[in-house]
Amino acid sequence: MTGSKILLESGTNEVELLELYLDEGSGDSYKRWSFGLNVAKVKKIVREADLKNFSGHKKEGSVSRVSSSIDTKSPLVLGMFEFMGTVIPLIDLSGWLRMEPVSKDRRMVLVTEFNEVVSAFLVSGVNRIHRVSWSELESLQGNMAKYAEGTIIGTVKLTDPDRILQVLDLEQAMEDLNPDRDKAALEEVEESVECVYQAICADDSRSMRNLVKNSLERGGFEVDAYPNGLEIWKALQEISAKVSKTGLHVSEFVQLIVSDIEMPGMDGHALTKRIKEDPNLRDLTVYLFSSLITEELLHKGDAVGANRQYSKPQIATLVKQARVDLDDIYKCKG
Q: Where does the Response regulatory domain lie (predicted)?
């Protein structure tokens, strides 16, 4: 986000979260809900009243192009507006979260960009930026996990005042607004049944985790999938122990790791750093696959030893390159 000057070192397992809030109800039933969003996904924060050329419909010829891969007829799309010469959708965040509509007083709009899509979300307001460790982000458990699956990836406890920050899974929101997206992305993956490799992937977003797993399987991989970096690290520690016990090379157990960057417990940078520092695991091919691959994040990925880095629309390219890279390493062709 413009104006953010906090720099995070590679592999420190930290993230900057913008705290936003939704006000629900009034009087005795009033409740303020706090949510978190990675600052790197936020392009700009504007007042709803300051939106340029806001309309429920695109005005032909008024702007250069439309930046949207979502169903603009969805009731969750409140309208369209112009942002930097592009028409983008304004999405009702409270509606997607199945909450009551927020009050119309002094509402704010978060313009976001991730997965190479620019869109905007209507909120009651924003508070501040919090620098936290991914280890502080607790995965949802029990009934909360069932209720919030697909909307919240985890929670962070804040103080002064005490409150719970619910970290949003906006990738799932975009999937819900464009249900054919993942099907189309999967069909772009070249199908193969030859020379099966073993892969492990991790992503906290349910929709993205399924897409990565299904795409790799279509490309000729056997895949184990995990919801966060901590879980995949536990699995890799077991493999490391097997390597030590048997004397076999790690490639006898797994050849490829595909990891998201933003995840509860341990992020992709910290995970990659640990893999490359483990003498039993360091030969593994590690790809980082994220909705956010900026120049800064590319540098961070390189610093921790990632073999390749891709933004999430590039799943077909990732699978194809993985086969090329592993064929080259293990000479398993044809």
A: 198-327
Last residue within a domain, chosen from 176, 191, 217: 176
Asked, for residue 284, whether it belongs to a domain, the answer is yes
Proportion of the chain above pLDDT 90, given as a percent = 55
Q: Is residue 3 part of a domain?
A: no
Distance of CA 93 to the CA centre of its chain: 17
- Helices 295-304 and 268-277, interaxial angle, to 10°? 20
Q: What is the CA radius of gyration of the chain?
A: 21
The pLDDT value recorded for residue 144 is 63
Q: How many domains does the chain have?
A: 2
With respect to residue 1, please indicate whether it lies within any of the assigned structural domains. Answer: no
Give the tens place of pLDDT for each residue, 244-292. 999 999 999 999 999 999 888 899 999 999 999 999 999 999 999 988 7
pLDDT at 220: 94
Same domain as 270, residue 163: no
Contact (CB, 8 A) for 166 and 21: no
Q: Which residue, 176, 204, 227, sits at the end of a domain?
A: 176
Query: Do 159 and 197 have their domain in common?
Result: no
> What is the chain's mean pLDDT, rounded?
86
Task: Give me the DSSP letters along 269-293.
Answer: HHHHHHHHHSTTTTTSEEEEEES--
Q: How far, CA to CA in Å, does 120 sit from each of 33, 44, 80, 91, 331?
A: 19, 9, 9, 6, 47
CA distance 236 to 16: 27
- Bridge partner list, 24: 31
Domain contains 54: yes
CATH code for position 236: 3.40.50.2300
Locate 277 and state its tokens.
């520092």
**Residue 88: is it exposed, middle or buried by C-beta count within 10 angstroms (0-12/13-18/19+)?**
buried
* pLDDT value at residue 71: 75
